[in-house]
Amino acid sequence: MTPTTGATTGTTAPGTAHSLASAARPHSLGLLRRIGFLPVLLVALVAGMAATDPQFYGPINILNILRNTAFLTIVACGQAMVIIAGGFDLSVGAVVALASVVSAKVMAVTLAAFPGSEGLATAAGVAAGLGAGLAVGLVNGLCVARLKVSGFIVTLGTMSATTGVALMITSGIPVYGMPQGFVKEFGRAQFLGLPTAVYAALLVLALMVFIQRRTLFGRYVYAIGGNADAAVVSGVSINRHLVGTYMLSGLLAALTGLLLTAQVGSGQASLGGDRMMLQSIAAAVIGGVSLRGGIGRVEIVALSALFLTILGNALNLLHIDSRLQPVFLGAIMVAAVALDELGRRRNARV
Amino acid sequence: MSDIDAAPSPSGLPALRRLAVQAALPIALVLLLLAFAAVDMRVLSLANLLNIAQQTSYLALFAMAQTVVILTRGFDLALGPTVSMVSVGAALAMASGVAAGYDPGLVLLMGLAAGFGLGIACGTFNGAVIALLGVSPFVATLGSYNIAIGIATTLSGGRPVQGVPDLFSHLFYGGSIAGIPAAILIAALVGIVLHLVLTRTVYGRALYVIGTNPRAAAVAGLPVKAILVATYILCSTLAALGALMMTARTGSGEPNLGGSLSLQAIAAAVVGGTSLAGGRGGVGTAVVGALFVTILSNGMNLTRIDGYVQMVVLGAIVIAGVVLDRIRLEQRG
Question: Which parts of the chain span the membrane according to its record (chain B) (predicted)?
């Protein structure tokens, strides 16, 4: 779908297949290729829905779409970085749950120990939640980098372990007793008509764009995913940066867990889960992140998170049986990647 | 001792060391059983051993299904949903046959046709998308994962499908020969046949070549695309067989039967020593891995270890298994 989005400018790592392909690209398709198919699909979807159902552009529905997009975008940004470096993070859904449970528990305990000190409780809870995410990311990264085990298997293992720990902490029961301020003034609050989560997602997205383009870490991640051997020869310390991508992914998943917890008002081990994990990978892949590593931009991933969320919303509004909806998601994902692959082959031939 | 050798049995390796490398996990299995038995003697009772064997036969079938595609550097995330879809489809076909008053044999045939038909359809989709369109196995099977879940829940309306005939349940679950339950017999038979296919046929050897070096396989003139499609069909067909056996056990078509089976089966195969990098593994690794996982959870259940702790242990075991495999490989090289 977006062979172009990665290749429009010099933002892909030098020496990847794309920069070669873009040189040989025919100019007739240039404009469409430069924008990519995703924005076109997105505009078509929005226009189509706006024409058929006035509920679609109602303020409540739009807020709902934006909020859900924000959660998915934050997780997908971390996932995208891991995939660009040539890995996978299957544990993000479990980390969302763990961060939710850990932060809620710490807040409740702190508040019980120091009644009235809501600020302290909130700070401790947020730190504990983010710390839990970083810890899982550290374990993932160390196993992948030091033990040279594939990211798929490592994060498959930590996914199971993390879910187990989250359930152990709660015994499967939601954790209540967090400061009211955290829920009312943060989770369910709105500034200028938009939920807090949306601002958090925009902030994360801006930071990630900066990291990808303007920091050594971002450039090295492209280099490692594009050609790990070449990166080593060029003097990039691969292990440190690999661990970095997994920790970033864990941190962002934990942040989503905190935002969801603040919105729901309790710590729950059922938040996130397999669904969030699969959706984050789908968002990254439809957003043009190559599973072979080395290619992908977070702003396109955010666009694709918006697309996926609106698609789910549209299917609901059109009263399409919720049981049938996964069929659409699956078909669109395969089609998007197949188109991308076919486009790449055509480019290679020219 | 060259790694160029595509076969899983490198001819240069000294026989004794090879034995030690291969026997590591079986030895660990026996130790594990004895450790659990020390806590609770019931672990070693004949009834429990038979129970373990029966539980293992399902997971072993699914691990074998994953193994054939993992050999080619792929995997099938859609295996679990395929199981759900086949279970629901077969149960619906048989229930409608029973309702129409058909002959029991015909009803059974309808169920098998629907079940295997759905399995083959799913495998064909996966194989075609992966081999012909060049989409990575992860995305392709993640796509069919969603599609199969959608079909399974839509067909069943999200509820169990009742009306599975007794003949079917007897054949795939209740029946036994010489006291050995049907599930074990079927799994053993499939295991033997698949082992022969993997080690004694050109197709089987081709899987190892493709997994070890796809480019060399293509250069050597192997029809790589056709073989890949066939392998994904084989994988889904094995999954469909396992689904029919599980449907016979529960006595109804269950839209949630597959659950987290995809990842469980991959974990079992990998713990047994199948390499996700392709080209290494076989029926033996799948069965040993499935036995290991089953004995572990059976033992933890009998010694009353908390279910949530079990998840943590299983996760750690999966990672440890792969790390050990890595170390073994380095020693060999």
Answer: 19-38, 58-75, 106-125, 132-152, 172-198, 219-245, 257-276, 283-302, 308-327
